[in-house]
């Protein structure tokens, strides 16, 4: 499956952005979809993920501010990001886990100015 991420951009601290990840085919059978982020010199880290059953997990740093959701009918996963901080600045990557295979999108830049 191919993943296309969009919605990144430049926003002031305290603002909001909504990232979208569109899959090239149905995500109905995909076990887990999620968002990761990476800054230069650091490892890619999990931001949020959602299972096919709707269970969610969040990094402690984004709990209460970010919300992940999936729309199986539109083959899309969203990440609503509120109360953004400068520490949220990173390239955000969409991920899909199907069996033992990890699929990655191309990344979208999020920059939060203080």
Outline the structure in words:
The chain is mainly β and 114 residues long. The chain is 0% helix and 55% strand. The chain is built from no helices and 11 strands. A hairpin with a 2-residue loop joins β9 and β10. The chain is globular. It starts with a strand and ends with a strand. The mean pLDDT is 95.
Structural class: mainly beta
Unreliable stretches covering 5 or more consecutive residues: none
Please report which band the strand proportion falls in: under 5%, 5-15%, 15-25%, 25-35%, 35-45% or over 45%: over 45%
Order of helices and strands: EEEEEEEEEEE
In whole angstroms, the N-to-C terminal distance is 37 Å
**Approximately how much helix is present in the residues?**
under 10%
Number of separate helices: 0
In this structure, how is the largest beta sheet organized? 7 strands, mixed
> Taking all residues together, what is the mean pLDDT?
95
Number of strands: 11
Q: Which geometry do the CA atoms define?
A: globular
Radius of gyration: 13 Å
